[in-house]
Design brief:
heterodimer; A: 425 residues; alpha/beta; 4-stranded parallel β-sheet; 19 helices; B: 252 residues; Nucleotidyltransferase, domain 5; 2 domains; 5-stranded mixed β-sheet; 4-stranded mixed β-sheet; 9 helices; 9 strands; 41% helix; 21% strand
Chain lengths: 425, 252
């Protein structure tokens, strides 16, 4: 695609061209510093570089072409929105921009200042007309995972066509019933939007595709148990980030190719860092593109990240949806069962998350755990303390970081992370 | 025996300690200014020793100028320095120019749990410098004034800027200057005590960093934790000393 074709497409989407150019310039610089500077990257990372370089280009073009062919586009912010149903209705599902400071002043006219940067970011991207994904959406699906998002969607709904799913706060039988009813309501909304019926056949096919994507990501996650680490945490995070917006089938094929290369590398005893490099598990809040600050600080402090216990990571890929049911109602039950297993901090209690983190650390041979809490994210801030106690009991060194999308604390964070890594070696 | 130098490039001052065969042979200090590398050259007119360890905020900066140098965090450097000065030390408190650190020490100066202030200079040496200036005093005179106070008002703001506003309001209300000065010192000490308790405060406590030279801060820390902290003769040299000792025991 030529620059002129890009620009014309962005004009049609009514983006703020000047501000969007500036955003892409910063993103490119950031990507160069954090990604392209890495040593010993996998050859398959070329896919990641290409997808990211065309994140607002070719992928948007594909989405626009799909729209021209009559497809609908659904935007999401959370792993509770079932991609199986979206695909079964013949729509496209994309994660929306929420990982960078953008349009903050405008966002603060819709949401209070003491709101987390992720929420401010998606509101800001919309109000400042900077996200071609948001501008391509026919429907945006929100979810009641925290008070900040729940209330933000009320204001956001004035700017986009919004559907909010209720995610329960407990995991009892009545809560599963509630979420099951929400799935049915989402299915109806999709059918009304697309004019396509979700059938047993279309849902079975969609479930197979989404599970295939999860299996590829599970395969990649497992390979990271090798020492030396076959892939950097930054690249693995990027793979997970891209899983939210690239074409699912192409993505699955590319990740499996990446895994083939990783297996060959492991067989040769090679990796991105020398054997014995301190290995860290990153746990906590999701990191949307281009929120690479903490992974970069960690991996430039002499450690390598071997897992992401996060929605953009393990929480999104751990559980598959049961593919055995044959009728639509039983399939929806299976979806409810699958999604209600997610160990999000929005649930009370959420003790399975503590077990999961300890198990991940053990399986990935992590030497320590770093918890990332996004400033003003109350659910994860509470759990940062619980995780700390659980890691102490498990004998795992632990560092809790609370930060946001700003860079002004980078120096202090670097010192804390480096000091933590020093204690491990 | 070769010289090993430790350099601590902090936000307010730079310290240099040279050790030879495990013994300190020199200690030097200069303000950081806007030209920290120029200040380093002034501290080592003939160039620093080949074996050079750098800690503090400017450690990456120094690495660009002295590529043979090794870097170590302030947290580890202070822990090693404190353990050398007081081998029995169990907990470390460092209040520097823009950072406060609480560290639980393991045997041999190893770092256990640690806490560090997040981003702004609230509750650090900079806070005291700023508020002293607002009183038109040097930091030493400000500490002396605070020691004369006996009824400190609670200062709730930890923000350096708002604390000044609060102090001005208190003055307008007729609160004695000495009491306000004491209140401002108490504000930073109570914050550091919270950090100490989070890492698991155990005696003996070593108090280092530039603020450990402030007698009022030392007295308030003692009152808050219930026992007197151990303070080295030159508390601001601890990081540079620790960096030198760390490198001396690290294979070349």
């Amino acid at each position: 695609m030529t620059d002129a074709a890009h620009a014309a497409m962005w004009e049609r989407l009514d983006l703020d061209i000047e501000a969007h150019d500036a955003l892409l310039a910063v993103l490119g610089k950031f990507y160069g510093d954090i990604y392209l500077s890495q040593q010993g990257r996998l050859k398959g990372a070329e896919y990641l570089d290409f997808v990211l370089s065309e994140v607002h280009g070719l992928r948007i073009k594909e989405i626009q072409d799909a729209k021209a062919a009559g497809k609908k586009v659904v935007g999401t912010f959370c792993v509770f929105v079932p991609e199986e149903l979206t695909l079964a209705a013949g729509a496209l599902q994309v994660g929306l921009c929420a990982g960078a400071k953008a349009g903050t002043e405008k966002a603060e006219t819709l949401v209070p200042r003491g709101t987390c940067d992720l929420i401010k970011s998606f509101v800001g991207f919309k109000l400042a007309r900077l996200c071609p994904y948001t501008e391509s959406c026919d429907l945006v699906v929100g979810e009641t995972t925290c008070d900040g998002k729940k209330k933000a969607y009320e204001a956001f709904g004035a700017h986009v066509n919004m559907h909010v799913m209720e995610v329960p706060q407990c995991k009892g039988p009545c809560d599963v019933d509630l979420f099951r009813a929400e799935l049915a309501r989402y299915k109806d909304a999709l059918e009304a939007l697309t004019g396509n019926a979700v059938t047993a056949a279309s849902l079975a096919e969609a479930t197979r595709r989404v599970n295939a994507k999860r299996r590829a990501l599970q395969r990649l996650a497992k390979l990271r148990a090798a020492d030396p680490a076959p892939i950097s945490g930054r690249d693995a995070l990027l793979v997970n980030q891209i899983s939210f917006y690239d074409d699912p089938d192409r993505f699955t094929a590319k990740v499996n190719e990446l895994c083939d290369e990783m297996e060959a590398r492991i067989a040769r005893g090679e990796g991105v860092a020398s054997k014995g490099t301190p290995r860290l598990l990153l746990a906590g809040c999701p990191m949307a593109v281009p929120n690479w600050k903490l992974p970069y600080l960690i991996e430039s402090s002499g450690a390598v990240i071997v897992g992401e216990e996060s929605c953009i990571g393990e929480r999104n890929t751990r559980d598959l949806t049961d593919e055995t049911p044959a009728d639509l109602e039983a399939m929806l039950d299976a979806l409810a069962a699958r999604y209600m297993k997610i160990d999000c901090a929005c649930f009370t209690p959420n003790d399975e998350r503590l077990t999961h983190i300890a198990a991940m650390a053990r399986e990935l041979k992590a030497d320590g755990v770093v918890h990332y809490g996004l400033l003003f994210c109350q659910p994860y801030a509470h759990e940062a303390m619980k995780v700390g106690k659980a890691m102490e009991a498990a004998g795992l060194p632990y560092l809790a970081i609370e930060t946001d999308y700003g860079m002004e604390d980078a120096g202090q964070l670097k010192t804390r992370v480096e000091a933590f890594v020093e204690t491990l070696s | 025996m070769t010289d090993v130098a430790g350099l601590d490039i902090g936000s307010r001052s730079i310290e240099a300690v040279v050790v030879r065969g495990g013994e300190v042979v020199s200690m030097r200090r200069a303000p950081t200014t806007f030209d920290p590398l120029g200040q380093v050259r002034a501290l080592f007119p003939d160039g620093p020793p080949a074996r050079l360890a750098v800690t503090g905020y400017g450690r990456e900066l120094a690495l660009a100028r002295y590529p043979h140098a090794r870097t170590v965090t302030e947290i580890k450097a202070h822990a090693m320095g404190a353990a050398r000065l007081f081998p029995e030390a169990a907990t470390l408190l460092d209040i520097g120019g823009q950072d406060t650190k609480a560290v639980s020490l393991l045997p041999g100066g190893k770092v256990g749990r640690f806490e560090m202030n997040d981003r702004c200079a609230a509750g650090t040496g900079k806070f005291l410098e700023y508020t002293a200036t607002a009183f038109g005093l040097t930091v030493d005179a400000f500490a002396a004034l605070a020691l004369a106070g006996n009824d400190p008002p609670p200062i709730s703001s930890m923000c350096t800027v708002f604390a000044e506003t609060e102090a001005t309001t208190l003055m307008a209300r007729g609160v004695a200057q000495a009491d306000i000065a004491l209140g401002l010192h108490k504000a930073i000490v109570s914050r550091t005590v919270a950090m100490l308790s989070r890492v698991g405060l155990r005696a003996p406590l070593v108090f280092v960093g530039g603020v450990a030279k402030n007698p009022c801060a030392v007295r308030l820390v003692a009152e808050a934790v219930g026992f007197a902290p151990l303070v080295p003769a030159q508390p601001d040299m601890t990081g540079a000393l620790g960096a030198a000792l760390w490198l001396a025991q690290t294979p070349a």
